[in-house]
Amino acid sequence: MLVLYHGEPNGPSLSVLAMLAECGLEGQIETRPINLLAGERHTIPGIAEPLARDIGVEGEGPLLVVDGEACQESVFLAQYLDEVAGAGLQPKDAYTHWQMMMWCRRITERCAPAAAFLGNQAYAAPVLAAMDDAAFDAIIAPIASADLHQRWADTRSGAFPDAARTDSRAKIADAAALVETQLADGREWLIGPLTIADFETYGWLVGMVDLMPDTFAEKSLTRAWMARMAARPSVQSALARAGVTHPERVWAPGPEINRWG
């Protein structure tokens, strides 16, 4: 049995849930919502190797459990879903497929850590800071990865250096500019046809609009693309799973800020 554990439809959980619907796999793969900021990802039963679950660079992202194996990372999960369904959301042409994967790598390595930094500073840190020590310790006790354990502690303590905040805002602005430039030739989707890159990029950027409104206000092509993404039935299906009014404001400790800039 395949079970997809996911957080609120934001960030990587949004991209994977939308891909699930886009691939026509709703009802074929069981889905179970979990509260990522309550540490529920680390108490999922039947995981054969907890460390493998926790060392993913994505941090608190969705998990697809297959025969006790915790499969993770939203781009890889999207590929898995596409290949199971034969949905055609990965280009067949080798060069275009390379373009899609390089685009996704840029989003996951530069945009995603920046979005997680800003989202956690704005929304997650106050929630964790309000907890008493015993409650917080109970949440992080099952985390097998020392790096991820530290990211939780840093989030709670408010370890958000000004330099990292400035850098994160710059990287979000760079991602929005990248989208704007890519769409300048009149294409509807980022790689040409609709691909995994659209879902991955939208998942990480949509929560940044409220935090950096001026960045998106001047990007008319990016806003139009985001509107097209929001209107897709698959994205609407993902958002319908939300348990809160504003899922784009729900964050949990995410990717580590890149050490190499």
From TrEMBL:
Q: Name one GO molecular function term.
A: oxidoreductase activity
Which InterPro entries does the annotation name? Glutathione-S-Trfase_C-like, Glutathione-S-Trfase_C_sf, Thioredoxin-like_sf
Q: Which UniProt keywords apply?
A: Oxidoreductase
* Catalytic activity, EC: 1.8.4.-
Record CDD domains: GST_N_family (cd00570)
Q: Where is the GST C-terminal domain?
A: 130-251
| Protein name per UniProt | GST-like protein
> Per the UniProt entry, what species is this protein from, by scientific name?
Novosphingobium sediminicola
